[in-house]
């Protein structure tokens, strides 16, 4: 791709990559030197957009257009199998959705799943990160490989694996764990809200903890070793070192990890769809949107749910950035 | 390296075993299920009573062959193409972000972030309507394009982070030593950038491979239906019998490439994932 | 125009036409696409046979739909709403036929064809393929649930369902006294609607009083003696644990598993259980003596003196209204549903024929000794509510009649009536 850079696009290092020999190789290191040449800045901007433009356009086209369309559709009473009855009804769809306990129930379940999975994953992920951080070289590879397996596995596959393991007729869990109080061969995990949510969350945690623990591992490696050693020399206990030295230095990493996982968990769909399809009060927002627009073909109502879901996500982001001051610059790799 | 006391050795062994069991048990359990006879699925045992390859025969040569093989082909083809396109576009974009100074850079990065948190379910219905009116419904391209919205953002961050760490001065050094610009780029920069690009490709592939919502919503025949969506189409010996065996076998088949990639490239994947999200 | 020029024109026309003709010859006869529900390969086989019989007039290709009926409908409805011309023939689950027929997604069936495909067809299948007094789909196979019972358990309870029709009360008492488990489908899925509907119909009521009305005028018939009787049965089975711990997630397959265990007693289920149980015996998973202990009879009654109305299922063939080859598709559909094809499909795939003639086929009688009971059951079977809003009604029922233990004759019929009415009026989400 580098050959596509027009010659003379700037006198800095990147023109080295063009076939044109550069008359003055020595100037390359000053690329961020804010030259007064506005020509140069313009060229650089143009080149930047030429390179980054296609990716930008694709991203915008695949998301912005559909969400605008969804917003437009959400203002109509529109059922796909009755196209002639399509009619503008203003914000009525939103009123219906927001005044319906079904929406709030799904919202509560989704929020519960998000909070619980993120908290558990944070703890588990931190433990795993510590293990990987401290592990001797030989074990590190083994551990990393093991925890990357859940990361790489298809969510649907993981949902089926967990479903079959807990299912009352085919599962082994009831037989293996019948010594646990409350677990016996007659426990029907997918018949009650609490137990079904527990399995759904367990599978979600299993699948995504590796991701969070890797982010935390990166954070751990940023903690200056000298600080920790100094604290150890000063006689700080392990817990004190963790609290005073390690965690404060990892704050940015933790916040970013939490935000990413929270947004991801809020969109949970695959596991619920496979395991309960929303039975026993396990309907989540994505499933509600799917069931309305794709199952019932109620495009208007479904689009309203989609738009609201979108605003929820924006809301979480906003809260995280404003209230918790998550440093997204570091998330963007600008840190 | 520190020498380990016996107690520490035992401790580490225990920890390793615990982590491995936790990470691998569900995978092993579905592998075990995939070798069970259809009539023995409900015995409640972990391992099959009689080991059988019936389920694999069903999906590779038997009644589910016409469902599974095209789906496997679609999954591989669509994911590879989506990965390739995403990596090419992201490489260009990340190069610009890492090395050029221009207005709009933040906009691009913020957009990437925004797109990556986008609720997929919100855009599936409008996409369905658009696709069917322009003829992209149930085609490879009709999945590749939305897959780009999943793979591009993370590819851009990961690569931008990688590219920032490349000492571009090496290129000049090589040229000073008499290499042509192309040689300099190929000898000095490509070897440094290649691992990043490769890692990004792996991560992007995992994401495309994982998709379910687009797969079930934007396809309707074996022309484009990927494996995760096809799992819902399996059937037992008759309409009402559970296709547990076939699903498990298919699940194992699509998990194998993932496990192999993880085994071969765990180090790269880890560094890619961590650099993309939090700059190391 | 001189002669010469006309000549030239003729030559030119031939020159243009020739490659076109060659092209058409190369691509062969039109290919019809038949969207089938997943089965054990029977429909693919029939498609191949009909292609052969068509002798070059058409080729019949199959494309598979998802496993559960609701997703099948989802996919077909979306594509038909987009006026998809690639759908020529569809295997349709009967309750979803009105939704596709109402907006004109199904091509009309000409009178002469209708005449032909409705002779010697069981009543349940005819009802299921009819919308607003017109035949809109071609009956292919018809399914019904029977009462399956363990002879030992029935005997101990002093019942002989094969001779004397039994009531739900009797089998519930029998299961309770002997500490056995009843096989019923309590999962929150289509099978629950099947159960509720069969109970309401057997008690002399209807889930919908006026199924052909527009959405906001539909009247539910659940707040009736029939609705309360149905709720009483389901609630009692749920509360007293007569359906076992697995009841709230029990679909047809899980129900069969329970029935095959030692705790099995009575079960309502489709005939696939017979072939599946025999297959398990052949695998050595189940003991051969189990098969000898299994009896079958008509669906249990709610009221001892009123005939039951067993569930009706199966597949009818719809012709896509936007197909480019409606005539050929009609022809192919008639080939698919010949009694011979139906009989063989039953014998190999276990799906009972809609044609009464197919039941006399020796292969059928050998594979399914209960063929006569199935035919009888189909004659008195009641379809699920035939409305374009079936999906809302069915999902609404599942939402309010699940889990079975929470079903209460005093509250459930009213609650589900209110809920479904609100959903149909667009005032509530599902």
In short:
By secondary structure, chain A is mainly alpha-helical. Chain A has helices spanning 38-73, 92-98, 101-134, 137-152, 155-166, 173-176, 193-222, 225-233, 238-266, 270-275, 285-295, 299-322, 328-331; strands at residues 76-77, 87-88.
Describe the 3D structure.
Chain A has 13 helices and 2 strands, in the order αββαααααααααααα. Chain A has 335 residues and is an all-alpha fold. Residues 1-35 and 331-335 of chain A have low confidence and may be disordered. The radius of gyration of chain A is 26 Å and the shape is globular. Chain B is mostly helical. Chain B has a single domain, classed as MetI-like (MetI-like fold), CATH 1.10.3720. Chain B contains 11 helices and no strands. In chain B, helix 2 (54-60) packs across helix 3, helix 6 packs parallel to helix 11 and helix 7 packs antiparallel against helix 8 (181-210). The radius of gyration of chain B is 23 Å and the shape is globular. Chain C has 430 residues and is α/β, with parallel strands linked by helices. Helix content of chain C is 47%, strand content 12%. Chain C is built from 19 helices and 11 strands. Chain C has helices spanning 3-27, 42-54, 69-81, 97-101, 111-118, 123-128, 151-156, 168-178, 190-202, 225-239, 252-260, 272-283, 288-293, 326-336, 339-349, 362-367, 371-380, 390-400, 412-424, and strands at residues 31-36, 59-64, 89-92, 130-131, 134-135, 138-144, 146-150, 181-183, 264-269, 294-297, 312-319. In chain C, the strands form 3 sheets. Chain C has a 5-stranded mixed β-sheet. In chain C, strands 8-9-7-10 form a 4-stranded mixed β-sheet, sandwiched between helices. In chain C, strand 4 and strand 5 (134-135) form a beta hairpin. In chain C, helix 18 (390-400) runs antiparallel to helix 19 (412-424). Chain C is globular. The chains are: A mainly alpha (335), B mainly alpha (280), C alpha/beta (430). Chains A and B meet through helix 1, helix 4, helix 5, helix 6 and helix 7 of A and helix 1, helix 3, helix 4, helix 5 and helix 6 of B.
């Amino acid at each position: 791709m580098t050959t596509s850079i027009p010659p003379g696009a700037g006198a800095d290092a990147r023109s080295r990559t063009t076939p044109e020999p550069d008359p003055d190789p020595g100037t390359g290191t000053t690329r961020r030197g804010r030259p007064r040449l506005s020509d140069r800045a313009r060229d650089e901007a143009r080149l930047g957009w030429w390179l980054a433009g296609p990716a930008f356009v694709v991203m915008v086209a695949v998301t912005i257009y559909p969400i605008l369309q969804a917003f437009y559709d959400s203002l109509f009473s529109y059922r796909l199998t009755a196209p002639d009855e399509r009619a503008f009804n203003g914000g009525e769809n939103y009123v219906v959705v927001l005044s319906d306990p079904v929406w709030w129930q799904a919202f509560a379940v989704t929020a519960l799943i998000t909070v619980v999975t993120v908290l558990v994953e944070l703890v588990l992920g931190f433990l795993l990160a510590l293990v990987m951080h401290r592990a001797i070289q030989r074990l590190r590879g083994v551990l990393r490989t093991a925890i990357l397996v859940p990361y790489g596995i298809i969510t649907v596959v993981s949902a089926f694996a967990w479903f079959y393991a807990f299912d009352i007729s085919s599962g082994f869990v009831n037989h293996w764990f019948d010594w646990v109080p409350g677990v016996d061969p007659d426990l029907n995990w997918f018949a009650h809200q609490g137990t079904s949510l527990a399995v759904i969350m367990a599978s979600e945690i299993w699948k995504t903890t590796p991701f969070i623990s890797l982010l935390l591992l990166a954070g751990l490696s940023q903690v200056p070793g000298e600080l920790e050693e100094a604290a150890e020399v000063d006689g700080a206990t392990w817990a004190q070192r963790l609290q005073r030295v390690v965690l404060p230095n990892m704050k940015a990493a933790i916040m970013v990890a939490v935000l990413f996982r929270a947004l991801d968990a809020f969109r949970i769909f695959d596991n619920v769809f496979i395991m309960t399809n929303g039975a026993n009060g396990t309907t989540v927002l994505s499933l509600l949107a799917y069931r309305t627009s794709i199952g019932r073909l109620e495009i208007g109502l479904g689009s309203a749910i989609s738009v609201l879901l979108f605003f929820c996500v924006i809301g979480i982001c906003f809260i995280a950035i404003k209230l918790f001051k998550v440093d997204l610059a570091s998330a963007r790799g600008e840190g | 390296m520190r020498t380990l006391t016996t107690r520490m050795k035992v401790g580490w062994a225990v920890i390793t075993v615990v982590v491995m069991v936790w990470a691998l048990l569900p995978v092993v359990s579905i592998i075990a299920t995939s070798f069970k006879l259809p009539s023995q699925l409900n015995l409640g045992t972990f391992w099959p009573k009689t080991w059988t390859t019936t389920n694999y025969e069903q999906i590779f040569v038997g009644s589910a062959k016409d469902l599974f093989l095209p789906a496997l082909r679609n999954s591989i083809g669509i994911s590879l193409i989506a990965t390739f396109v995403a990596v090419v576009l992201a490489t260009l974009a990340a190069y610009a972000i890492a090395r050029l100074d221009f207005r709009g850079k933040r906009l691009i990065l913020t957009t990437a972030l925004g797109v990556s948190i986008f609720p997929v379910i919100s855009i599936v219905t409008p996409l369905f309507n658009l696709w069917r009116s322009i003829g992209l419904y149930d085609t490879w391209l009709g999945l590749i394009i939305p897959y780009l919205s999943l793979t591009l953002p993370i590819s851009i961050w990961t690569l931008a982070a990688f590219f920032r760490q490349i000492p571009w001065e090496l290129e000049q050094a090589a040229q000073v030593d008499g290499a042509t610009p192309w040689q300099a780029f190929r000898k000095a920069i490509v070897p440094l950038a290649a691992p990043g690009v490769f890692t990004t490709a792996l991560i992007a592939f995992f994401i495309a491979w994982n998709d379910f919502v687009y797969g079930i919503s934007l396809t309707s025949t074996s022309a484009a239906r990927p494996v995760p969506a096809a799992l819902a189409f399996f059937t037992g010996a008759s309409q009402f019998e559970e296709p547990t065996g076939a699903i498990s076998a298919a699940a194992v088949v699509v998990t194998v490439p993932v496990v192999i990639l993880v085994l071969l490239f765990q180090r790269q994947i880890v560094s890619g994932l961590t650099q993309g999200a939090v700059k190391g | 125009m001189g002669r010469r020029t006309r000549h030239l024109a003729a030559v030119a026309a031939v020159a243009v036409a020739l490659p076109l003709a060659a092209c058409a010859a190369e691509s062969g006869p039109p290919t019809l696409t038949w969207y089938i529900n997943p089965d054990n390969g029977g429909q693919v086989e029939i498609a191949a046979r009909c292609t052969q019989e068509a002798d070059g007039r058409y080729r019949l290709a199959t494309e598979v739909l998802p496993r559960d009926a609701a997703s099948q409908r989802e996919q077909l409805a979306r594509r038909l709403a987009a006026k998809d011309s690639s759908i020529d023939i569809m295997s349709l689950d009967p309750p979803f036929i009105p939704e596709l027929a109402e907006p004109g997604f199904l091509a009309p069936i000409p009178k002469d064809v209708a005449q032909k495909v409705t002779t010697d067809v069981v009543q349940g299948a005819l009802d299921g393929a009819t919308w607003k007094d017109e035949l809109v789909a071609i009956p292919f196979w018809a399914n019904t649930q029977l009462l399956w019972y363990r002879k030992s358990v029935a005997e101990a309870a002093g019942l002989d369902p094969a001779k004397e029709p039994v009531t739900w009360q009797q089998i519930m008492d029998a299961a309770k006294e002997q500490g056995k488990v009843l096989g019923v489908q309590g999962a929150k899925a289509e099978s629950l609607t099947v159960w509720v509907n069969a109970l309401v119909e057997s008690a002399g009521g209807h889930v919908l009083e006026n199924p052909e009305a527009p959405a906001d005028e539909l009247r539910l018939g659940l707040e009736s003696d029939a609705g309360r009787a149905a709720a009483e049965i389901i609630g009692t089975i749920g509360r007293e644990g007569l359906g076992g711990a697995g009841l709230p997630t029990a679909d047809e397959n899980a129900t069969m598993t329970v029935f095959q265990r030692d705790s099995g007693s009575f079960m309502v289920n489709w005939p696939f259980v017979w072939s599946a149980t025999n297959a398990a015996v052949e695998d050595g998973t189940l003991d051969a003596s189990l098969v000898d202990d299994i009896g079958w009879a008509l669906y249990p009654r709610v009221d001892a003196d009123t005939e039951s109305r067993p569930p009706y299922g199966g597949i009818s063939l719809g012709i896509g209204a936007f197909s480019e080859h409606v005539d050929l598709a009609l022809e192919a559909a008639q080939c698919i549903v010949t009694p011979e094809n139906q009989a063989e499909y039953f014998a190999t795939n276990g799906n009972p024929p809609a044609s009464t003639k197919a039941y006399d086929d020796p292969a059928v009688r050998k594979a399914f000794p209960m063929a006569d009971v199935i035919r009888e059951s189909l004659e008195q079977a009641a379809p699920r509510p035939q409305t374009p809003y079936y999906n809302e009604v069915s999902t609404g029922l599942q939402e309010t009649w699940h889990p079975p233990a929470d079903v209460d004759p005093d509250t459930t019929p009213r609650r589900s009536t209110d809920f479904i009415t609100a959903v149909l009026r667009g005032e509530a989400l599902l």
